[in-house]
Design a protein that fits this description.
This protein is α+β, with helices and mostly antiparallel strands and 65 residues long. Helix content is 28%, strand content 12%. The protein has one domain (2-63). It has a 3-stranded mixed β-sheet with strand order 1-2-3, with helices on one face. The longest helix is centred in the middle third of the chain and has 13 residues, at 33-45.
Length: 65
């Protein structure tokens, strides 16, 4: 999708919110919703063309795939 939409000026990335402390994430989750959302906002703000097609965790780490 990242390749197909690049010519339309659309940047496509995957984001990983982390293991978040929610009902679904359970009590052993690693981070709070505030940490996850804050991290994702920072990731989104820092995106550029080199980011296209990558999977990025809430903390900015690129996840190989």
């Amino acid at each position: 999708m990242a390749i197909d939409l690049k010519s339309h000026g659309i940047l496509v990335v995957g984001v990983h919110p982390g293991w978040v402390l929610t009902e679904m994430g359970g009590p052993k989750a690693e981070i709070t919703m505030n940490v996850s959302v804050g991290g994702l906002l920072n990731v989104i703000a820092g995106l550029n063309e080199d980011s296209a097609g990558t999977l990025i965790k809430y903390d900015g780490e690129i996840v190989p795939w």
